[in-house]
Amino acid sequence: MTKGENGTPVEILLVEDNPGDVRLTQEALREAKVRNNLHIVRDGEEALKFLYRKDGFSDAPRPDIILLDLNLPKKNGQEVLAEIKADPSLRRIPVVILTTSKAEEDILKSYDLHANCYVTKPVDFEQFIRVIKSIQEFWLTVVKLPE
């Protein structure tokens, strides 16, 4: 049984500065009907404050999975990913890169920094919903997450 199936909500951290993508992600997660708590931060610095429980995030839960955009203000997604994967207390949290970039350089660098997977956001609404559902199905139902 995976987390979420036994009534324990899955803690998802969405690091996304685009309000439209935030709304689409919220809608897709709601449609998938997996019990989850979605936490949203708008830039890379805020993501690290959330993860380290600093500056207004002292009660933040440890995320079970992180959905991380690459193009973020203040600190970009790859900088955030590098910090997460360099920290022994955070590195086991699965990080899904969810970005508009299709650049091979971004894909290679993200995997070099130990991203768990790299997904390009589709521009079509229905496809975006399908991608979010696929991520949720795989990472929150099929995969056994670390406790």
Mean pLDDT: 89
Helices and strands: which structural class? alpha/beta
Strand content is 15-25%
Order of helices and strands: EHEHEHEHEH
Largest sheet: 5 strands, parallel
Number of beta-strand segments:
5
Rg calc: 14 Å
Helix content: 40-55%
Distance between the termini: 13 Å
What does this structure look like?
The protein has 147 residues and is of the alpha/beta class. The chain is 40% helix and 17% strand. It has 5 helices and 5 strands; from the N terminus they run E-H-E-H-E-H-E-H-E-H. The protein has a 5-stranded parallel β-sheet, sandwiched between helices. Helix 3 links the parallel strand 3 and strand 4 (95-99). It is globular, with a radius of gyration of 14 Å. It starts with 9 loop residues before the first strand and ends in a 5-residue tail after the last helix. The mean pLDDT is 89.
